Amino acid sequence: MDGVSQARVTLALCASAALFEGFDNQSMGVAAPMLFREFSIAPAQGGLIFSAATLGLFLGALAGGRAADYVGRKQTLTASLLLFGICSLLTVAVRGAHSLILMRLLTGLGLGGAMPNFIALASDAADPRGKLSAVTMVMAALPFGGALAGMMALTERMGWGWRAIFIGGGLGPLVVAFLLIAFRVGAADGARGPGKLGASRESPVDSVGSVLWGMGRTRATLLLWSGFFFTNLVLFMMLNWLPSLVVGLGFTRGQASMSSIVFNLAGSGGAVFLGRLHAGNRRRQWVLMTYGGISLALAALAAVASFGRGFSIALLACALAGAFIIGAQLILYALAPLYYRHTGRATGVGVAVAIGRSGAVVGPLFAAALLASGSAGAAVLAGAIPFVVVAGAAALALTWQPQSVD
Predict the structure, then answer these.
(1) Which of 64, 90, 174, 233 could bond 85 through an S-S bridge, CB–CB 3.0 to 4.6 Å?
(2) What is the location of CATH 1.20.1250.20 in the chain?
(3) pTM to 2 decimals?
(4) 276, 133 in Cβ contact below 8 A?
């Protein structure tokens, strides 16, 4: 394969990995009503099951990013895909809450380890002038996978049950892992370093402290973490609570499911569009537009019930919210590799992803606390806007920080 073909194969496989990451991230949420009913799982146990996957994602992102800078991006991504693919398939055989918690923890470890590696691999393979747009397009497969998982809920009507969701979510990453083994995957520019396929291992791997704080990167690292934390807080609040919030606005459960699918699909398309804009020369203006768009979409959705608007207006607000929120998250994923040297890139990205995952824990808890206190769905949506402002301020300040030259 020539360099261009190798880069295209790398980006295609990274996009495939992102697709199944998005699918498996939401597979439990889709399968939960059927699965919990079959095994009579109580709400408290259900919370532990969801938390186990989140803990695995956090730990996997930290370990997977660091391991990649020692043994290689491709090798670590392959191992992560095999882990979450096999554990997703094994979920079919669970017999109760305890085995399900274990499978979700192990699946989360694989999911967490995969993300920083397909981000770093895609960034390495992309043309230097098009890294941001290329990585954003790869990451756009993530919400599309989430939308596919949402559509799998329809299989219950076909008699397939919840096991079909985990079979599909398990076989896909295994296929991608074997393709990674079969094809020459890595950067096409021939650069040397521990993350490149066939590259020399003589280049030393930077320490964690050097990666995060060395060479004047302290401010960039803290701004990335802030952007990741608060953007993921809002995103995962919406992913987990959007259907319930839509029902709370006075719409049906069927309409709530439709709003969730539209949120993800719009996010996938919006990420590609916003990625192209942010790759240009007016990044600061587009950052303001992106986070301003999130605030306006949340405010519009919150106002639907107050002004008695129809579902079409609510659906449009959900689409705009998905496009801007998911677009903002994926742009941060694409930006993260640009601030770290090659010898520590996966480590830097992995820690940023882990910080984002901690925000993903706080967001749903924030919504739950407001709803438990008697607040309406509109109040939850409006209450998220200050977090959007903080995330936007961090992303805007990041545009003044110097990027890595390798």
Answers:
(1) 174
(2) 1-187, 207-406
(3) 0.79
(4) yes
